[in-house]
Amino acid sequence: MGESNQSGGVPQQLSLGVSLRDDATFANFFQSRDEGEGLEGSNRQIVGLLRAFASGDNAEPCIYIWGESGSGVTHLLQAVCQGAESARRGFQYLPLADLIDSDPEGTVEGLEFLDLVCIDDLHLIEKRRNWQTTLFHLYNRLRDSGRQLLIGSRKSPRGLKLELADLQSRLQWALIFQLHPLSDDDKLAALRQRSKLRGFDLPEDVAHYILHRAPRDTRALFACLEQLDRASLQAQRKITIPFVKQVLNI
Predict the structure, then answer these.
(1) How far is CA 114 from CA 68, 147, 168, 218, in A?
(2) Residue 15 pLDDT
(3) Looking at residue 101, what DSSP letter applies?
(4) Inter-CA distances, 139 with 2, 6, 142, Å
(5) Strand 91-95 to strand 148-153: parallel, antiparallel, or no bridges (unpaired)?
(6) pLDDT for position 16
(7) Assigned fold of 5-178
(8) What pLDDT is stored for residue 179 in this prediction?
(9) Per-residue model confidence (pLDDT) at position 41
(10) What are the sequence ranges of the domains in the chain?
(11) Is the Cβ–Cβ distance between 188 and 208 less than 8 Å?
(12) pTM score, whole prediction
């Protein structure tokens, strides 16, 4: 079990078979350049708040971020967990997409003793009364013990169709942010910036080719980039349009 700061131990996650992506960090989070240069772009305020939340410098009890698939919700939740780990805080990341069929009470047992709990894909508890009841009680235990909760979802708290009205009202007490999907220009910039962070240059014409032929979801686009990086290292070849056609079959 992960240990709280107060115990003085090195925090780890519970044994739930859950892992974090190494590239899910604040440093490579990209949303939009509408408010100036930089990876954080128009969500600079959200990212700054979440950095402080991860380290424990922001005492907000509950933050709720939502947006459609590919908007960066999961990336930010995992980035917060990475930040909590660096700050030696006890934390647990719960991706409900992987855990929704497990026993909810057993899954969340003891989480109120950690500093931070991050629950992803909350929209999946619709029509799951057992999960709704369990998370309602977990919310109360975390709040009563002065711990923190971060929630990610594809729906706003008001947009969720929950049977448990008490949980819905609790969720609306949170500090709520909506993330918006990237424009095509932003996706191009994100692809090229991500490639630089991985240590190679992605030519603009190649980025355009990938964007217009690969799945347009940012998660899928970044997966393509990762696949190309591995293949180019193995083949010792530059990433060109013919190479993209060969590797990705697009």
Answers:
(1) 29, 7, 23, 32
(2) 52
(3) T
(4) 18, 20, 5
(5) unpaired
(6) 58
(7) Rossmann fold (3.40.50)
(8) 87
(9) 44
(10) 5-178, 184-248
(11) yes
(12) 0.77
* pLDDT of 35: 44
List residues bridging with 149 in a β-sheet. Answer: 62, 117
Rg value, the chain, Cα:
19
Name the amino acid, one letter, at 189.
A
Q: How far apart are CA 67 and CA 72, in angstroms?
A: 8
pLDDT at 96: 97
- Is 248 exposed, middle or buried, given 0-12, 13-18 or 19+ CB atoms closer than 10 A? middle
The DSSP secondary structure of 144-208, one letter per residue, reads HTT-EEEEEESS-TTT---S-HHHHHHHTTSEEEE--PPPHHHHHHHHHHHHHHTTS---HHHHH
* Residue 232: predicted pLDDT: 92
How far, in Å, are 191, 196, 239, 250 from residue 227 at the CA level?
A: 13, 15, 11, 13
Which residues of the chain fall below pLDDT 50? 1-14, 35-41
For the domain 184-248, what is the CATH code? Answer: 1.10.8.60
